[in-house]
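Quality-control log, excerpt.
Job 1 of 2 completed; input and output follow.
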Amino acid sequence: MKGQKQSRTDNLEKRMAAATNVLQGLINEIDHLKTMTLGMHSLIKEMPDYEKALEKLKNKNEKMQQVPEGKAKLEVPDA
């Protein structure tokens, strides 16, 4: 009986280690995406007409906030 309990404990420890490794991989990926996003944001801020585009997005967002919930319209941007 003791051997079965030890085997079960070992199995649970292996599963916990595997789950820990997966979570650590996800944490690393999120950190990588965060770094990449911040870099992209810095790059975009240097582009010409950044301020104008930002104002346009803010205005568009304000208009979307004013549309009643039941009447939201879907707008497909030009590609």
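Job 2 of 2 completed; input and output follow.
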Amino acid sequence: MTTREKTPHEVEYPCPKCRAGVLQPRELTYFTTVDGQMLVVPNFPAWVCDICGYVEYDERALGWLYTLLSPPMQHRPPRRATHATRPRPEK
């Protein structure tokens, strides 16, 4: 008989707040503000304590969300001309 490794959702994570409960995977609605505007993300992965209700949003999902919301590059690399600049043809 072999034992298999538990997936991250099968491992029990103790609650860091009450230390009595266990964090359970759930999907919640995530609320935040971006540039003064409310942003609502439904079905966002989170971990919720089964005793005290403490919530930790999934770090990986938060990373993806912050990457999507980050401003575009401020300093784009200069575009290189692929051909020599030529004068416009006369009409």
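Post-run check on job 2. The chain has a mean pLDDT of 80.
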